[in-house]
Design a protein that fits this description.
By secondary structure, the protein is an alpha+beta fold. The protein has two domains: 42 residues; 98 residues, no CATH class. It is built from five helices and three strands; from the N terminus they run H-H-H-E-H-E-E-H.
């Protein structure tokens, strides 16, 4: 394994630990052990696919996710604070263009974390998604997220 790979992974795990603990200094003693264990496990595991992933696309995805989370949170809060709750919750079925399982899991997990959506299942490449308001451009948002996931995994959409 290349030394740069070890340093990059350790830095990513360290950054993740810092985010999880809110940067608390007293969490680093335990965090060092957790980071070392995560690093050892990640070095032993084989990559999920021969395609690998794009670090630049992953960073772009991270920015997209943060912006989408903030906008979605504000939007859901505005819906909840309306004097008359005017929502049209729905269960949508959206065919996915991502074919590999790890890509689909990444997409589904992302959509579940975004405010206003909840992934409810996946059957035959068709995502079941619960949404707070079906009038929103949900499928367009799913397609945009799906395209970003495809870039992260360096794959083509079907």
């Amino acid at each position: 394994m290349m030394p740069t790979t070890i340093v990059v992974r350790a830095a990513l795990f360290g950054a993740f630990w810092w985010v999880l603990t809110g940067g608390r200094a007293d969490a680093w003693l335990f965090g060092a052990a957790v980071i070392a264990l995560a690093l050892a496990v990640s070095l032993r595991l084989q990559p999920p696919s021969a395609h690998g992933f794009s670090l630049i696309a992953l960073l772009q995805f991270f920015v997209f996710f943060i912006v989408k989370s903030i906008k979605g949170g504000v939007q859901v809060a505005a819906m909840a604070l309306r004097p008359r709750l005017d929502l049209q919750p729905a269960m949508l079925k959206i065919p996915l263009r991502l074919l590999r399982e790890e890509e689909q899991v990444f997409l589904i997990s992302t959509l579940t974390l975004l405010p206003g959506t909840l992934s409810a299942g996946l059957e035959e490449n068709c995502l079941q998604l619960h949404v707070l308001d079906a009038r929103m451009p949900i499928e367009q948002d799913v397609r945009a997220t799906e395209a970003l996931v495809a870039r992260v995994f360096r794959t083509r959409l079907s």
